[in-house]
Amino acid sequence: MTIVYAICFVLLSISALLALVRIEKGRSMLDRMLALDIMTAIVLGSVILVAAATGRDDVIPVAIVLSLVGFVGAVTIARFAAAESADEARILTAEELRAEYAKLQAVESDEAPPVHDVDEVVIAVVDVPGGYRSRIRSRPRAGEDRGEEEE
């Protein structure tokens, strides 16, 4: 029986090594997360293998917790993978990354046209019962007092 445990341990070690390579060199974040989920399953298998080889049953709660962590991880991966579009899943080339970075810099720089003018004064004319009209400024102009109503 020791030979069976040794063969299982070698197979788990090889699969853990391959999963680590996949975590390091995965093409997308989904590949890396899936390899991490596989690593959780490998650790779970190792714990069960140790429990079977040594005859200890006190590691069963550890195996249950690991299986729950693996399940929650798989569900979380599936949720985020479903939200990612095909265009977001691919890795950008160097030219595409430079173009995106240039767009971001143009938006953040002062030379870009403003999205809205924070110094713009908005005036609304309000009809008040009693027959007179008042003008209300949403923001005072620079150098003016802070009074809101004008006649």
Short description:
The chain has helices at residues 2-25, 29-54, 60-83, 86-89, 94-108; strands at residues 123-127, 133-137, 149-150. It is mainly alpha-helical.
Please describe the structure with a list of short key phrases separated by commas or semicolons.
5 helices, mainly alpha, 151 residues, Helix Hairpins, three-stranded antiparallel β-sheet
Write the layout of secondary structure elements.
Layout: H1 2-25, H2 29-54, H3 60-83, H4 86-89, H5 94-108, E1 123-127, E2 133-137, E3 149-150
Antiparallel strand pairs: 1-2, 2-3
Helix pairs in contact: 1-2, 2-3
Strands of the widest sheet, in order across it, are 1-2-3
Query: Structural class of the secondary structure composition?
Result: mainly alpha
Using the coordinates shown, work out and report the CATH topology of the domain at 2-104. Answer: Helix Hairpins
Number of E-state strands: 3
Number of helices: 5
Largest sheet, strands/sense/barrel:
3 strands, antiparallel
Amino-to-carboxy terminus distance? 98 Å
Percent helix range? 55-70%
What is Rg?
31 Å
Bulk shape: elongated
Order of helices and strands: HHHHHEEE
State the CATH architecture of the domain at 2-104: Orthogonal Bundle
List the uncertain runs.
Answer: 133-138
How much strand content do the residues show?
A: 5-15%
Broad CATH class of the domain at 2-104: Mainly Alpha
Tell me, rounded to a whole number, the average pLDDT: 76
